Structures are given as structure tokens and as C-alpha cells.
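Now read the record:
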Amino acid sequence: MKATIERATLLKSLSHVQSVVERRNTIPILSNVLIEASADGAIKLMATDLDLQVVESVSAQVEQAGSTTISAHTLFDIARKLPEGSQVSLHAAEGKMLIQAGRARFNLSTLPRDDFPVIAEGDLPTVFELPAETLKQIIDKTRFAISTEETRYYLNGIYFHVSEDASSGGQPVLKAAATDGHRLARVTVPRPDGADGMPGIIIPRKCIGELRKLLDEVEGSVQISLSASKIRFGLGSAILTSKLIDGTFPDYSRVIPTANDKLLKIDPRSFEEGVDRVATIATEKTRAVKMSLDKDRITLSVTSPENGTAAEEVPGAFQGEGFDIGFNARYLLDILGQINTDLVELHLADAAAPTLIRESDSSPALYVLMPMRV
């Protein structure tokens, strides 16, 4: 194989594929990126960790078609340090690859292409498109609530499913939800054409992270093809394929409160800043912030046995009988960070019941937060 490629093009593609590669691998070839040069002037780069695979095609000058595999992180580091604007020559033969750019020369070991594993996709019967912006919004508004507990592996991703939504007059919708048992985030969007009959799927955390990075460079729509066990995203010059989490996502709709009758309307920015300030003295273990609600007055306070106390009043519209409720400051700040409007609604019941948080009753995202004892 012999080809020449612009450094910027190579670097950009490698940055997409190499992040899939795990730093520690028991199988040597999984540390490598597959480079395939074809006679029609394209280079295909591919990396996998056996659960997730990313393939990107870029244009290059190909003198001799062929393929090989080479250490992904080493090649990425080399490309990063090569002079800007340089042309990079790649020449692979007899278990080695010669990389030249300007006056720099590297001769690296390679592993044969035949040993490189490829995820067999099988049949992907459900096919639809989503605007890249919509997909970005879904990920950003739910990703923070994905569980990191390995024991409840079925919560280690975002759950996508379709339904006829009673609240939107029976309109067909696509819902995405994530929860770690302490908080829940859900986004609802109109169901795209072709998504009817789609199975409920759980997309793993790592796939979500890689997808979100790639979405920044996609304009227009993303092609999504899926079965009950695999999903493929068409992202312009890149294709991301992932296995799905084989598990049953809990019926999360049961924890979304419908009868919380105490409504607090508050400016999300001043609320967020107030929580952040008083939480400065909260200990890492508890991180509990107490919220005392009175008529149109909200007092945030933290009591730390080691550090002392902190309190701040924030303005908000609250009618009804006052009471105290506690929240994990980190969880509350994660949710408030996703609110883009001038007012946020907190629907409360009592100090022990889950609280519903949303921008308004028509906003696509809603959040549920379990209280803490304070």
C-alpha cells in the first residue's frame, strides 16, 4: 500500500477513530487502526473495541491500493506532531509502515489486515433520519443522568423507544430517557418517518460519547439503521456502528409524578448560581442542599459538620404552604445546566416525594429528581 494524504485530513480522521480504541488491550490488534487505500483515491480508517466500531473515508492520492493495521494512538500522536500543512506519505510493506512528512521519517510495525475484527451488522430493518441538531439536543439533555454503576448495566445508556403520546393528543413520538435511580431525564420529539415498529433500544454510554463528538461536524441529517441488537449511524464521511445493551430498561414512566400540586417558578440562572455558592462548603459525601420554601421566597442552605453553614435567598414565585426539601447539589446543577429559558418550573409534593422539573408543560425535556434527607 502506498498513499499520500494531507496532515490535517489524516489528523481529523484519526481523532475520530482513535478515541474508540481502549488504552489497555489484551488483544494487540484492537490497539490498531485499519488503513485501507483503494484505487479510486480514498483511504478508509477503521477502529473497534468489539462493541463499537467507527469507519471514516477520506480522499487521498493512492499510488498502490492495499491495507494494513497500525497502532492507533502512536499514529495519532505522530500526525499531531507533524508540521502543519505537510503532505504525509504512507507506505506499507512486509510488516512495516514508513511514514514520511517533510524531514520526518517513522518506520512502524504493522499487523496483518486479516486479523482485524469487524462487527457483523446483520439485518438492520428499522431505518430513519434525525436532524443532527435534534440528536445533539437529545444527547445533551439526557446524557448526564446515565448510570455509571456496572451492576445495573441496563441503566448504562440512553433508552430510545416510540409511543403514541396521550399528552400530545395521541401524536406518535420518539422518547429518549436516562436514569441512575436518583434522577431521570427524558426528551420527547416527533416520531421520524420509518421509526414506527422500532424496538425499544438502550444505546451504551461509550457509543453516546463518540456519537456526540462526531455530531459536531455533521450538517443536515443523520441516517440511523437499527435492529434489536445493533445500531448504525451514518454521519457524512463517518459511520458509527455499535452493539446495544442487552437488557430491559425499567418502566420509568411510573416515577414521573403527575399529582405534584406545589409549583415553584424560578429564574434558573440565579437558582443555579445560588445552589453552586452554598454548595461550596458541602462535603463530597453528602452534597445536600436544603431548600426552604415560603411565599415567594426560597432560602438555600447547607450545614456541614466540618466546615460550618451557608445560606442564600433567591427570588421565586411560590404559593401555598411552605416546607423544606433537600437535594443533591450536583444533581440539581446538572439539570439546571440544561435549562435554556428565563423560568424553570419545579412541581413539588412534599419532602419525601420525587420533584418534577421542566421549562414549561410544552417543552420537549423533563427531569425528575429524588429528594435527600436534610
